[in-house]
Design a protein that fits this description.
heterodimer; A: mainly alpha; 10 helices; elongated; disordered N terminus; B: alpha/beta; Rossmann fold; Alpha-Beta Plaits; six-stranded mixed sheet
C-alpha cells in the first residue's frame, strides 16, 4: 500500500501568528485587481469612456473656450488634466461600490470576523481602487504625452505621484459613502447628487476665473479643485498657463484630504448596518 | 475535575432597536464538545452566533472564549475561532483555491504552511479536483463544503457553525458530522452550532434549547429526554377540552392541552392507550404513542409546539407607532 496522497499537517497546529496590516491589505487589494481583470466589459469601458468624453467635450467646446490672455492654449489642453481627474474620480468611486456588492453577496462577513485590523481592511480596498484608477489614468497621461503636452520625465513622475494621491483620497471618500449603504441604487443617487457636482466644480471642465463669484467660491472650497490644481502644476513643471493656487497649498490640501478620508474610513468601518446581518 | 470552559456566556442580552432578541442567556461549552443551540427561527440562536463570531457586539452581558473577553480582546478570540456562516460568504469570481488562499492570509497564514493547509482541507472536503475552478460553477452543496474548509483553514479549536446542514444532501451532512466528531476526538476541537432540526440537535453532545431569546432547557439530549416521565400519548379529539377534563376526572392522570392536541405523559404508555381508547371512543379521532423526543422536551418547557410561534408582542408594536422618529 502506497503513501497517502495528502497527509495531515503536523498535529500540533497552533493558532497562526496574528496577521499584520500589510498581509491582509495586500490580499484584499489583489482581489480587487483580479476581479476587475476577469470582467472584460469593465476593462473595455474603463479604457474607452474617458476617450469618448475627451473627444466629444473637447470638440464641442473648443470654439467657445477663451484662453487666458498671452497664451494660445486650446481647450483640449485645458481639458486634458480635467479628463484625468474624471478618470480618477469615476474609477475610484466605482471601485468602492464593490463594498456594497461584497455585503450583498455575503463576502464581507468573512472579512469582518477575521482577526485582521480594521486599517488593513480599509487599506486593502483603498489600495486596490487606487491601483485601478491610477493605471487607467496613466494610460491617458501617456497618450497625452504624445498628443497634447510633451512632459519632462520629472513632470511625468510628479504627475503620477499626484494622481496616486488624488485617487487614494477619492477611494477613501467612496468608502465612507459606500460603507453604510445596502443597495447600489442608493449609491448611484449619492453619485449624482454629490460626487458629480464635485467633479464639475473642480475646474476639470471650466476654470474658476470667469465664473460668477458664488460658483468660484464653491470651487475654492472643493478639495478636488486643489488636487487638480496640483496635477496641473506637475504636468507643466514651471509655469502653468492658468491662474492656480500655488503648488504647496494644493499639495498640502490634497494630502490632508487623503488623510481625512482614510481616517474617516477606518472610523466608519467599525459600524455595522442591517445588511451585514444576513 | 472541571476544566476551564472554552466558551463561557454570562447573562447575555441583546436588543435590535426595541426588540429583545436575547434575554439573559448563560451557558458554557467545554473542549471537545459538540454543542447545539436548538430553537425555532427568531428564537435567538442566530443572534447568539453573530455575537460569538464577533460580527456584532451585544448590548449587555459577558462572553469569554479561551479565556479572552470578547469585548475587550476580540482579536485574540478571532484568531482562535473558525466561522461557517449560513449565508454564502465566498467570492464566486474566484476559484476555490483562491478563496481559501485569500482567507488564509486574512488570518495570518502564508507561504508553504498556507499551501499545505489548503491542499489538505480541499482533499478532506473532497474538492481537490475542482480546486482551480470558479466557485460560481459549483453546486450549493459544493459551495458549503468550501465554506467548511474556509472555517477550518487556520486550525481553530472552536468552530462556530450557523445552520450547517443547510444546502447539504444527506450524504454530505453525514460526512460533515463525521468530520466534526473526528475533530472533537482527535484534536479536542469544540463545535458550537445552531440548528432548528431536532434530529441534528440529537447528535450533539449537549444542547441548549432557546425560545424567544430565553434558555429553556440545557443538557445532553438523553438527559433532556429523560425529564419526560415515560411515554407520550398524543390524542387528536373533536372536543379536546372535554376529553382532557374527562381523563383527569376518571383516571387522575396529568393531561395537557397543547395547541389543540391532548397530551398524556405516563409510563407504560401502551397500556394506557388501550384504557383511554376503550373509555372515550367517541372523543378520539387519532391516538399516537411515542418515546419522548426533544420536541416533547420543548413542549414541556414552553407550553407550545416547536413550530407554532408565540403571539407577536402587540404592545411593542403600538409603542413603536406612537414613537417619534
Amino acid at each position: 500500500m502506497g503513501e497517502p496522497i495528502v497527509t495531515r499537517p503536523s498535529a500540533a497546529f497552533e493558532a497562526p501568528p496574528a496577521p499584520g496590516i500589510l498581509g491582509p491589505a495586500l490580499t484584499l487589494a489583489k482581489r480587487e485587481l483580479v476581479r476587475f481583470l476577469r470582467q472584460r466589459n469593465r476593462v473595455a469601458s474603463a479604457l474607452l469612456q474617458p476617450i469618448v468624453i475627451f473627444v466629444l467635450f473637447g470638440s464641442a467646446l473648443n470654439g467657445s473656450f477663451k484662453a487666458p490672455s498671452g497664451s494660445d492654449t486650446h481647450y483640449f489642453e485645458y481639458l486634458f488634466p480635467g479628463t484625468i481627474a474624471m478618470i480618477l474620480m469615476f474609477t475610484a468611486i466605482f471601485s468602492t461600490i464593490s463594498i456594497i456588492e461584497d455585503r450583498r453577496e455575503g463576502f464581507l462577513q468573512s472579512v469582518l470576523v477575521a482577526p485582521s485590523p480594521r486599517l488593513s481592511m480599509v487599506l486593502g480596498k483603498l489600495l486596490g481602487g487606487t491601483a485601478l484608477a491610477f493605471f487607467q489614468a496613466l494610460i491617458f497621461l501617456i497618450a497625452g504625452y504624445f498628443f497634447i503636452i510633451p512632459m519632462t520625465p520629472m513632470a511625468l513622475l510628479a504627475s503620477c505621484g499626484m494622481m496616486v494621491l488624488i485617487a487614494f483620497a477619492l477611494c477613501g471618500l467612496g468608502f465612507i459613502i459606500a460603507w453604510r449603504m445596502d443597495s447600489t441604487q442608493g449609491f448611484h443617487a449619492i453619485m449624482m447628487l454629490f460626487l458629480m457636482p464635485m467633479l464639475m466644480l473642480s475646474g476639470a471642465f471650466f476654470p474658476a476665473q470667469g465664473a460668477p463669484a458664488w460658483l468660484s467660491a464653491t470651487m475654492h472650497a472643493n478639495p478636488l479643485y486643489y488636487g487638480l490644481a496640483g496635477l496641473r502644476h506637475t504636468i507643466y513643471g514651471a509655469n502653468p498657463p492658468w491662474e492656480l493656487p500655488n503648488f504647496q497649498l494644493s499639495l498640502g490640501i490634497s494630502i490632508a484630504f487623503a488623510l481625512a478620508t482614510v481616517a474617516g474610513s477606518v472610523a466608519i468601518s467599525g459600524t455595522r448596518t442591517t445588511g451585514d446581518l444576513q | 475535575m472541571q476544566s476551564t470552559p472554552v466558551v463561557s456566556v454570562e447573562s447575555l442580552s441583546h436588543k435590535y432597536g426595541e426588540r429583545l432578541a436575547l434575554d439573559n442567556l448563560s451557558f458554557t461549552a467545554g473542549a471537545g464538545e459538540i454543542f447545539g443551540l436548538l430553537g425555532p427561527n427568531g428564537g435567538g440562536k442566530t443572534t447568539t452566533f453573530r455575537i460569538l463570531s464577533t460580527l456584532i457586539r451585544p448590548t449587555s452581558g459577558k462572553v469569554t472564549i479561551f479565556g479572552f473577553d470578547l469585548l475587550t480582546q476580540p482579536r485574540e478570540v478571532q484568531r482562535r475561532i473558525g466561522v461557517v456562516f449560513q449565508s454564502p460568504s465566498l467570492d464566486k469570481k474566484l476559484t476555490a483555491y483562491e478563496n481559501l488562499d485569500h482567507q488564509g492570509r486574512l488570518y495570518g497564514l502564508s507561504g508553504s504552511v498556507l499551501k499545505d493547509r489548503i491542499t489538505y482541507l480541499l482533499d478532506r472536503v473532497k474538492l481537490s479536483d475542482r480546486a482551480h475552478e470558479y466557485v460560481e460553477a459549483f453546486s450549493g452543496g459544493m459551495r458549503r463544503r468550501v465554506e467548511l474548509a474556509k472555517g477550518l483553514l487556520h486550525g481553530p479549536k472552536l468552530l462556530l457553525l450557523d445552520e450547517p446542514s443547510t444546502g447539504l444532501d444527506p450524504g454530505a451532512r453525514r460526512d460533515m458530522w463525521q468530520y466534526l466528531r473526528e475533530l472533537s476526538a482527535s484534536e479536542g476541537v469544540t463545535s458550537l452550532l445552531t440548528t432548528h432540526y431536532m434530529e441534528e440537535a440529537a447528535q450533539c453532545s449537549r444542547i441548549a434549547i432557546l425560545n424567544s431569546g430565553k434558555l429553556v432547557a440545557m443538557g445532553p439530549p438523553d438527559e433532556l429526554r429523560a425529564t419526560i416521565g415515560g411515554d407520550v400519548i398524543s390524542i387528536q379529539s373533536p372536543q379536546p377540552a372535554d376529553l382532557q377534563r374527562s381523563i383527569v376526572e376518571q383516571f387522575s392522570l396529568a393531561v395537557e392541552l397543547v395547541d389543540g392536541t391532548v397530551r398524556v405523559e405516563t409510563p407504560k404508555g401502551h397500556e394506557w392507550v388501550a384504557k383511554l381508547g376503550g373509555a372515550f371512543p367517541g372523543l378520539i379521532d387519532s391516538m399516537t404513542i411515542s418515546k419522548p423526543t426533544l420536541d416533547d422536551v420543548f413542549i414541556k418547557k414552553t407550553g407550545h409546539k416547536f413550530w407554532v410561534e408565540s403571539e407577536p408582542d402587540t404592545t411593542a408594536k403600538d409603542k413603536k407607532r406612537g414613537k417619534k422618529s
